[in-house]
Amino acid sequence: MNGITRAAIITGANGGIGEALCRVFAEAGYRVVASDLEPVAGGRHVQAAVGLDLDRYCLDDDVRLRAHGQFAEALSGCELAVLVHNAALQVVGPAEALTARDWQRTLNVNLLAPFLLTQALLPRLEGARGSVIHIGSIHAGLTKPGFAAYATSKAALGGLTRSLAVEWGQRIRINAIHPAAIATPMLEAGFAAHPDQRAELE
């Protein structure tokens, strides 16, 4: 190795999957730069944190530029080896009740922000022959009522993954993981009042 510290940026770091990602990358020797809407309390697994509202990141040029500066500062002296787009917004409800703002927020957080952030960090990723990982969802191909905006955004994220892999595949690696139900605190909370449905899922 060249002696330069390898860094991993992980968005959505406060969620169940995000916390696990921070821990695993830290244990593998990466400098973990964690990002989330709320303050990140990652303890020994997080070396730097960038607070970021990904919806506003997509809508506001000043927010975007400020975030890029914060990431650059957090990556000082490191090479960006991994960028994990784990943050996601899930608006659950009947399709007839979805508003234009519900759609815009969902697509901003789950689709546009991953693209814009990868685009901004592409030179750093390319310099490290780095990897981008999109955390998709089983909903991209196998969904259920109430998830129209979320499922659409995750299906589009899969399409973005394939498109960027074709276009940038000689420069960086881009892959997607599409997990099914994961026993995170968010999932368990959603089933707290419905133990019968939780048992069925199990």
Throw out a few tags for this protein.
single chain, 202 residues, alpha/beta, 6-stranded parallel sheet, 6 strands, 17% strand
How are the SSEs placed, and which strands pair?
Elements: E1 5-11, H1 16-27, E2 31-36, E3 48-51, H2 54-59, H3 61-74, E4 78-85, H4 100-127, E5 131-135, H5 148-168, E6 173-177, H6 185-190, H7 195-201
Q: What is the chain-wise order of helices and strands?
A: EHEEHHEHEHEHH
The helix content, as a percent range, equals: 40-55%
Trace the largest sheet across and list its strands: 3-2-1-4-5-6
Q: What structural category do the secondary elements indicate?
A: alpha/beta
Number of strands: 6
The average pLDDT score comes to: 93
- DSSP helical segment count: 7
Proportion of β residues?
15-25%
Low-pLDDT residue spans:
none
Oligomer: single chain
What separation lies between the terminal Cα atoms? 44 Å
Largest sheet: 6 strands, parallel
3D shape: globular
- What radius of gyration results from the CA coordinates? 17 Å
Fold and architecture overview:
The structure is a single chain. This protein is an alpha/beta fold and 202 residues long. It is built from seven helices and six strands. The chain has helices at 16-27, 54-59, 61-74, 100-127, 148-168, 185-190, 195-201, and strands at 5-11, 31-36, 48-51, 78-85, 131-135, 173-177. The chain has a six-stranded parallel beta sheet. Helix 4 packs parallel to helix 5.
Short description:
Helix 4 runs parallel beside helix 5. The longest helix is centred in the middle third of the chain and has 28 residues, at 100-127. The chain has 7 helices and 6 strands.
